[in-house]
Design brief:
The protein is mainly beta. The chain has a single domain, classed as Distorted Sandwich (Beta-galactosidase, Chain A, domain 5), CATH 2.70.98.10. The protein has a nine-stranded antiparallel β-sheet with strand order 11-12-13-14-28-24-23-18-21, with no helix packed on it. It has one helix and 28 strands.
Length: 340
Amino acid sequence: MHTININLFNEVNDDQKIFEYHLTNKNGIQVSFIEYGATITSIKIPVSNDKKVDVVLGFDNIDDYINSFGLPNAPYFGAIIGQYSGRIKNASFILNNEKIDLNANSGENHIHGGIHSFSQKYWHLEKFDEVENAITLSLTTDENQENYPGSLKVSVKYQLTEDDKLIVYYKAISTKETIINLTQHSYFNLDGHEKDVLDQDLKIYAEKYLETDQQNIPTGKFIDVKNTNFDFTDYKKCPENVDNTFVLNEGNDAAVSLISQQNKLQMNVYTNQPAVHVYVGGNCFNQIKGKENANYHTKSGICFETQNFPDAPNHANFPSAILKKGESYNQKTIFEFKKI
């Protein structure tokens, strides 16, 4: 038995109301979303007969989501990232022998789609699908938004299955040849809101990661994880500091596994993308309170950004990030929850 429900999340003003949509499955898992940023606001999972744990960070009202982009380091809680996830060096790249200058919003670089990113847009509810227990949100960008060539029609479908998988389908089509790299930016904490993530066990299905410079821009080189702090080929405790892109092993669709011994809960991440960017964070700098009055800090959550490589347009040896006019961009990521 699954259900789709809707309620008023907040009123931005008299003319604009923000609704929250809830998918629930037969096992009592509930995933909630808002149109702003196509954001996942909560994932509540039963861990006992009388207790559910909310395993993603977020806010209780729309003003906090909006204002969080003014923090010293915007967290992008639960949002869809686009048009290009990660950093692009010097906010520029070459496409068809033409230099494209994007808006710089991280020093001299471009990150997570720029100043007016997908994460800060109001998406359109395109479809309720009660048979599939899914909702689809869509967005059409202005021509040359953030100086990306063309106009992009994007849709994101969230589906909650009866076997406890949250499947995220991404589709996009462009009016001109452009670049694209979409991801989902939820911060997970399988222990809930009040604790950090450092007691949870992490495994990353990657034998290499991307070398980066002092600005965390890829150099183009691949580093073996062996004998480094980034070797998570076997389970280890979550690191205090990680902001790195891991090159997923070919032939293994699993990307990441995370385990909470406290709640006897495991999350597995699967994707058809070549990489996962892993980031521990969530700091709100004592300026904005999280859900349930939580005080989010630098170790409050961990992100698994399944995606193409950051700065791929500037590296010939990276997978292509080009989307040709009229062709379809398709991406799929699965977050699976299991009791252990």
